[in-house]
Fold:
Amino acid sequence: MKIYLKIWRQTDAGTPGKLVDYELDNVIPHMSFLEMMDTLNEQLILSGDRPVEFDHDCREGICGQCGMMINGRAHGPVQHLTTCQLHMREFKDGDTIYIEPFRGAAFPVKRDLRVDRSAFDRIIQAGGFVSVNTGQAPEANGIPITHEQAESAFDSAACIGCGACVATCKNSSAALFTSAKIAHLVKLPQGKMESEKRVLSMVAQMDLEDFGHCTNTEACEVECPQSISVLNIARMNWEYTLSKVLKK
Amino acid sequence: MDRKTNTSTLMRKTLMALTGLFLCFFLVIHLLGNLQLLLPAEQAKESFNGYSQLLSGNIFIKIISYVLYASIIIHGVDALVITLKNKKTAGKYAMDGRAATSKWYSRNMGILGTLILIFLVFHFKDFWYQYKFGTLPMDEFGHKDLYTIVIAAYQDWWYVLFYVLSMFALGYHLLHGFFSAARSLGLYHPKYVSWVRNFGKIYSYVITFGFAIIPIYVYLTQHVVWN
Structure:
């Protein structure tokens, strides 16, 4: 396969970037998208150019590091998939592929396709945890919880923090990410106790980080590699209003 | 949380939902009142003018009407604040394929809302202002003859078309707005979420076609008989 690429190149956060054209021969349909990028980078290194920088780690769809806007879609044209799990068989010989970084005011570009997603870390730091004293591990069956409850909490906890929800949102809202953590913890007995404080401080941090409003377009759920439900957002809204009303 | 205004993204959306749902409720009452226009001409005139008189004289309705004006203004201003903030936070792409992941009307609530606002300006000018501040002819029962004003307005095809198109803008606005409001208010139970979504669809269709059929019916069947 021959593939034409238009890739966002940017030296650093302060320098304006632009799309640069590349051509790549000998692309094999079975290559993953990131292997195609590796092939391009080998070619760039051999010709003495700076390789295209992009985030990646596990390459098996679970770490949430990789993430690119591929032809204007977060993680490419397939729903519920990370970039590393996308294969070149989704494209045709002679296709032109636009590759841009995930964008949003809260996600400044650091270099090429690499963006600073530390805003997510700060949202988690604001309350995405349960306060427990260290020491001996408690008895596992000490706190009663049903299987369904545990599964439901785990569905919310499955978020890998890739940022596709923000990238695909027309307002760059982080509602799905933030709400997944809030819902995960409020569904568990250990997390329930701090839920009021948690939702207020996590939402406050989310707003401080320049994420937009959630307007319920539900695009985030479509692109989420973990299919995190938008109902988590509704759960966050409920918990938030409740906490505001009950706050002393 | 915005330190200056002490509001959050979630609070702004809650306000949108509350004012929006009140407007949704109002539309039902408004439509029920308007359906009187579909009665046979003489009966419609008596019924509609009497109803208008009843509403304008009632103190309870007066209070509701102020809540209504406030809701329209707050819904509009809040939408403007939200849209301006979203414009600042939103990422922009050279190649944007995101249209594939959501419904077009869910992404264009601001444009649909603006169309509805433009419609409201004409709607208020032609009927509300006329009734409250204009000099209207009287019908044989001594009521202000709003019925004839309405029938006269719908004699022009372009005016009818403007009305019908505006109702479709409203319809798509409701199709997203109704269920979105429930979400913003925190309805997260899967069973009721799907109920509300289906109810919202039926509601939007009823409101859209209910309002749109009236000018078409009047244009095709009724003619002005001034007293």
Q: What stands out?
A: The mean pLDDT of chain A is 96. Chain A touches chain B through 58 residues (CB under 8 Å). The first helix of chain A runs from residue 33 to 46. Chain A has nine helices and seven strands.
